[in-house]
């Protein structure tokens, strides 16, 4: 009979289960450490190494049967091996305590191929599958009372008979008296492939002539180690590696590891000898080698496909063991939720669910609105994080273990975003797929319905500038500065894979500089990633990293970064960014370039260089690379802080948002004991400030999302016309259109007017309101890479083709009620008429249009629906980032760097480089709200006359 595997619920369902089990196993490790009062996280099991050897040898027998000659298994072939013998407990308990014992062997075939074999000194597992195994581990971790309740829980989950069977199995295995681990037999307990046809279990049994051992000690906590050391003084330790072949599903099951493959059903066949000799090194080196072995992460999936593990429990081992090892090495983290939070948080969310039906969250008293926002965020984390990067299912063998992580990648940000999460090095890196907050809707039949050109012309295009009077233009420049760090959908060159949009009758469009007018608009298509499950492509990779790493300043790769540097500093010419042959300023990202971006990039390049000087003074023995990378860390964190506690509260000008986002960074106000008590009760994680917590991806690998990109379509913020003033006298310097200060013209204006006058002029002027009929005229025929685009049309086309749901579905996906009447979306009768006329069906309203049309809460610069994405992603970008959580510490940033970030913000940064602006900047408000204008003498008198 041929063997086969079966997947519980299917391959994908089983993978998701394994991810949950991995989280559970990390919690077991946390619980074990707490109970044992250990300093560090240990292995979930087999915590105490009894013996380790790095120079063992595995030799296959000369008469290896023909059908067992597979891969590296060849007659007479020898390989070096690493051996670890251990007690099975997760506590480092004495050898004389009742326990199972384990054996782990790593066979070194070559630098490109290793095989890990793991076995235990009892022939079967207590658990039938991975779910039982992890449940039993959770139930029996901790102290006596915890174990009692755990066992009761097992009985409810699996039934009394299954629970008793598991307890009997473990008790029988643990209570055996062990004289010597050299005399023990170790069984794999799970099956594995042996070539294309065979399925086997393996065992290591002691060599027949193994010397006798004395009775086990009842007092020596290390007697097993001592016995092996004495044994090695007089000879080698040898085990025989034997295979048991699959017979049939009943006698030798693949999926049920609680059933023994008996020797009568499948007699063991000796295939190799494992020899351990006395170490040739001195005591110091032997101890050091044992420490290295103890740091290894053994995993049966460190092998080749010809020897891959089989069965549910074995399939789970890859994800679970990797997570456990990563947690032990501080590459991955988990933060158990206190019982009070689980209980009180659930009650609070249920209460707010009722309250929100009658009272909007922003109309509640301050503390209630803060707790309500926390409840929103919890629900969104549970239901609105959708990973889209390809995942491995079923697990695949890897010929070598994951490589060691270089020290530089542990301490400093990489340029491409790799190794932010050390347990998943590619997470959030350049090229990673944009995730989703809402299940995507891919509807090609609606891509051009209604015509996006008509929608843009009738509902988006600006007739009269509508200002946002609570902000200044720096707020508009800032958000584009940030978006260029976060997101960059790679595009095909125009003419390769264009999106073709039909034009209204009689309209012509020229899509390329020097091109001919056509009846269609051609838009450079995004580079797609193939869809899953046979669906058409709706996934796209990010050409920037997803992390908050200042890539717009420093560049997305090492080559670009190197080109921007002079020693540890960013190259500047007379305090300004250098320009390329096209007249564009040279920086990390200069697409869609205009004077606002030039000001931001210049300001932060100067800040980087000033930090290099300060770090050099503080740490004179540092080399250029250390200074550069530390300054880069400080600048990136300062940018994240400014966005969190200054820009966002400026555009969402309510007290609840100010307190909430400040708490994201700093924790709740120290004098607000009531808020602190409320958060302690329902969300302890939120009561300290994210930089003081551990990374948490909330069950989904971190990425920015297409929905996040959609709500950041804030192009109406840009005015079409600008006035520039002298910051000292208030005298007008010039009036310019947006087209005058964009592209290569930005550098000329920056050098002519200077950074101080530019910042002052932007600080005293208003951006546009994020609403309908306010899309900048300058962006309605904008040249980018020789492509002429109407960006308002592009925003609609991109959103539709990336599978972002239409507005009503978008609302529903964020747990807001669907709108049923057109008048719910706008109080303007003319806008209601246009919406009805253009869309016909209320469910076809574009998300971009709906977000602009929706009346925002008082003080908000954009809609409450868009804000739901902010609630989720604003904290996620901090919470997932290692360098803004666990590694936001003096050892990485330097003590000077941590102090610098704590004591600085946008205002102090501006004043450091432009001290003349001190009297104009707001005293007790963000630098993104309107500044005080300098009045000319005559203008001042004229205003006073008018006032009188």
From TrEMBL:
Mind listing the UniProt keywords for this protein, alphabetically? Dioxygenase, Fatty acid biosynthesis, Fatty acid metabolism, Heme, Iron, Lipid biosynthesis, Lipid metabolism, Metal-binding, Oxidoreductase, Oxylipin biosynthesis, Peroxidase, Plant defense
Task: Report domain Catalase core positions.
Answer: 72-139
**Which GO terms fall under biological process for this protein?**
defense response; fatty acid biosynthetic process; oxylipin biosynthetic process; response to oxidative stress
Task: Name one molecular function that GO assigns to this entry.
Answer: catalase activity
The answer to whether keyword Kinase applies is no
What SUPFAM superfamilies does the record point to?
A: Heme-dependent catalase-like, Heme-dependent peroxidases
Q: Which CDD domains does this UniProt record tie to the protein?
A: PIOX_like
Keyword field contains Transcription regulation = no
Q: Domain of life here?
A: Bacteria
**Obligatory cofactor(s):** Ca(2+)
Q: PANTHER family per the record?
A: ALPHA-DIOXYGENASE 1 (PTHR11903:SF11), PROSTAGLANDIN G/H SYNTHASE (PTHR11903)
State the name under which the record lists this protein: Catalase core domain-containing protein
This protein's species is: Rhizobium paranaense
């Amino acid at each position: 009979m041929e063997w086969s595997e079966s997947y519980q619920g299917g391959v994908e369902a089983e993978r998701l289960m394994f991810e949950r089990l991995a989280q559970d196993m990390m919690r077991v490790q946390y619980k074990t450490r707490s109970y044992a009062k250990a300093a560090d996280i240990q292995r979930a099991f087999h915590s105490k190494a009894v013996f380790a050897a790095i120079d063992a040898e595995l030799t296959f027998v000369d008469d290896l049967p023909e059908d067992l000659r597979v891969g590296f298994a060849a007659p007479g072939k020898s390989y070096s091996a690493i051996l670890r013998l251990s007690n099975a407990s997760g506590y480092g308990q004495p050898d004389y305590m009742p326990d199972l014992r384990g054996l782990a062997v790593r066979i070194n075939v070559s630098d490109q191929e290793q095989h890990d074999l793991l076995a235990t000194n009892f022939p079967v597992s207590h658990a039938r599958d991975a779910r039982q195994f992890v449940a039993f581990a959770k139930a029996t971790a901790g102290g006596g009372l915890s174990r009692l309740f755990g066992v009761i829980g097992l009985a409810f989950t699996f039934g009394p008979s299954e629970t008793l069977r598991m307890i009997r199995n473990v008790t029988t295995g643990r209570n055996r008296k062990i004289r010597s681990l050299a005399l023990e037999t170790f069984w794999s307990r799970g099956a594995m492939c042996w070539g294309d046809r065979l399925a086997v279990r393996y065992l290591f049994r002691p060599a027949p002539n193994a010397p006798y051992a004395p009775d086990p000690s009842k007092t020596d906590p290390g007697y097993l180690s001592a016995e092996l050391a004495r044994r090695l003084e007089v000879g080698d330790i040898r085990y025989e590696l034997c295979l048991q072949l699959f017979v049939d599903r009943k006698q030798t099951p693949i999926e049920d590891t609680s059933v023994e493959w008996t020797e009568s059903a499948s007699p063991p066949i000796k295939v190799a000898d494992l020899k351990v000799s006395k170490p040739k090194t001195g005591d110091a080196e032997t101890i050091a080698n044992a420490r290295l072995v103890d740091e290894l992460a053994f995993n049966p999936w460190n092998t080749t496909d010809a020897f891959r593990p089989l069965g549910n429990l074995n399939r789970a081992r890859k994800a679970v063991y990797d997570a456990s090892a990563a947690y032990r090495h501080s590459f991955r983290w988990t933060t158990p939720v206190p019982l009070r939070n689980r209980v009180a948080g659930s009650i609070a969310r249920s209460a707010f669910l009722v309250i929100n039906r009658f009272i909007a969250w922003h109309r509640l008293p301050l503390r209630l609105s803060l707790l309500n926002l926390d409840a929103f965020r919890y629900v969104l984390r549970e239901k609105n994080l959708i990973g889209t990067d390809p995942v491995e299912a079923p697990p695949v063998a890897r010929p070598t273990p994951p490589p060691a992580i270089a020290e530089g990648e542990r301490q400093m940000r990489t340029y491409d975003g790799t190794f932010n999460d050390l347990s998943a090095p590619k997470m959030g890196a350049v090229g990673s797929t944009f995730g989703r907050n809402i299940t995507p809707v891919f509807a090609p039949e609606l891509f051009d319905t209604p015509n996006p050109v008509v929608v843009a012309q009738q509902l988006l295009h600006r007739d009269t500038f509508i200002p946002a009077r609570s902000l200044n233009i720096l707020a508009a420049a800032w958000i584009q500065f940030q978006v260029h760090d976060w997101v960059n959908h790679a595009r095909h060159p125009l003419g390769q894979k264009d999106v073709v949009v039909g034009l209204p009758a009689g309209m012509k469009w020229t899509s390329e500089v020097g091109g001919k007018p056509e009846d269609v608009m051609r838009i450079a298509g995004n580079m797609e990633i193939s869809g899953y499950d046979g669906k058409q492509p709706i996934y796209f990779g990010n050409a920037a990293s997803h992390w908050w790493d200042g890539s717009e300043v420093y560049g997305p790769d090492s080559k670009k970064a190197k080109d921007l540097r002079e020693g540890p500093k960013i190259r500047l010419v007379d305090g300004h960014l250098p320009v390329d042959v096209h007249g564009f300023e040279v920086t990390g990202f200069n697409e869609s370039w205009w004077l606002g971006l030039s000001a931001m990039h210049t300001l932060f390049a100067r800040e980087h260089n000033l930090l290099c000087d300060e770090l050099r003074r503080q740490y004179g023995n540092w080399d250029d690379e250390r200074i550069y990378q530390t300054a880069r860390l400080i600048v990136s964190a300062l940018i994240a802080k400014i966005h969190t506690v200054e820009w966002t509260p400026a555009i969402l000008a309510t007290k609840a948002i100010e307190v909430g986002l400040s708490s994201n960074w700093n924790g709740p106000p120290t004098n607000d004991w009531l808020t602190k008590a409320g958060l302690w009760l329902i969300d302890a994680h939120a009561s300290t400030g994210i930089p003081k917590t551990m990374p948490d991806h909330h069950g989904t690998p971190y990425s920015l999302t297409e929905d996040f990109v959609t709500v950041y379509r804030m192009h109406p913020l840009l005015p079409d016309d600008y006035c520039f003033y002298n910051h000292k006298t208030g005298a007008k310097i010039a009036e310019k259109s947006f087209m005058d200060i964009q592209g290569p013209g930005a550098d000329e204006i920056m050098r002519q007017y200077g950074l101080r006058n530019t910042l002052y002029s932007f600080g005293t002027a208003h951006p546009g309101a994020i609403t309908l009929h306010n899309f900048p005229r300058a962006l309605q025929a904008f040249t980018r890479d020789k492509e002429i685009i109407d960006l308002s049309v592009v925003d609609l086309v991109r959103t539709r083709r990336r599978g972002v749901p239409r507005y009503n579905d978008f609302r529903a996906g964020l747990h807001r009620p669907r709108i049923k009447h057109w008048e719910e979306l706008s109080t303007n009768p003319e806008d209601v008429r246009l919406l009805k006329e253009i869309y016909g069906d209320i469910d076809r309203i574009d998300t971009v249009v709906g977000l602009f049309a929706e009346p925002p809460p008082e003080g908000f610069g954009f809609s409450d629906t868009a804000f739901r994405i902010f609630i989720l992603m604003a904290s996620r970008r901090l919470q997932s980032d290692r360098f803004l959580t666990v590694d936001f510490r003096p050892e990485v940033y330097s003590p000077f760097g941590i102090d610098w970030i704590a004591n600085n913000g946008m205002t102090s940064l501006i004043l450091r480089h432009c001290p003349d602006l001190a009297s104009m900047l707001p005293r007790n408000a963000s630098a993104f709200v309107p500044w005080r204008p300098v009045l000319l003498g005559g203008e001042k008198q004229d205003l006073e006359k008018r006032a009188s």
